[in-house]
Inverse folding.
């Protein structure tokens, strides 16, 4: 049962344009969402997060949008740079009991930014 | 420098052998996690520990074992019972999460295990 889904395995974007990565979730108990960036053979690094009490969070070129009614979040990167080329994972954290602290990850989207 | 170390970077073992992957952190985090990544898939949780001397099974714990005798260390043993052990293994840590809210996990560089 895939509770967090990234339906686009890959995305190709021109340098300077906007990259939009999407993520859907099914568990309504999730209350905190994170995006991680990962290069091959390395551990993921944290990018940006959003709490379920917000619908938008910005950090420099990165903005995450959350639509709770649609159980959908997206990561916008503007402007995209070649160094942004990596795999992007969304992750969700649930509320309640021993679920605290556990992250559920999507399958990842490979972003390629062309010069 | 605060961080998480995993060693070795690459590990080769013969089928049927147990192997232990190390994970050490000096971030003073209470919680530690082990994930597995396979090609085209996300990270799947194997085991996690919120405090010393306590740990819980994640989503794919079969064929794995862990211990948490020290706050800084959370070694993972891949046993011969694990049917498909070849994968990229990632260790992470975070503050202990007692309430809903921010839960940022910090990851180590990973260990690529290949079973021949």
């Amino acid at each position: 049962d895939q509770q967090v889904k990234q339906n686009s395995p890959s995305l190709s974007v021109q340098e300077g344009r906007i990259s939009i990565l999407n993520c859907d979730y099914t568990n309504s108990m999730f209350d905190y969402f994170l995006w991680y960036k990962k290069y091959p053979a390395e551990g993921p690094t944290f990018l940006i997060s959003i709490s379920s009490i917000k619908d938008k969070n910005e950090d420099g070129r990165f903005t995450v949008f959350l639509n709770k009614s649609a159980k959908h979040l997206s990561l916008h990167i503007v402007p995209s740079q070649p160094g942004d080329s990596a795999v992007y994972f969304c992750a969700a954290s649930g509320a309640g009991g021993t679920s605290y602290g556990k992250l559920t990850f999507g399958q990842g989207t490979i972003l390629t930014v062309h010069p | 420098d605060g961080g998480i170390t995993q060693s070795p970077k690459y590990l080769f073992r013969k089928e049927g052998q147990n192997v232990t992957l190390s994970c050490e952190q000096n971030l003073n985090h209470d919680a530690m996690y082990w994930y597995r990544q396979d090609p085209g898939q996300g990270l799947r949780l194997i085991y996690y520990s919120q405090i010393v001397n306590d740990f819980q099974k994640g989503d794919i714990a079969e064929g794995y074992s862990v211990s948490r005798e020290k706050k800084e260390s959370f070694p993972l043993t891949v046993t011969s019972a694990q049917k498909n052990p070849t994968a990229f293994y990632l260790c992470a840590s975070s503050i202990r999460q007692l309430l809903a809210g921010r839960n940022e996990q910090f990851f180590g560089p990973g260990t690529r295990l290949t079973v021949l």
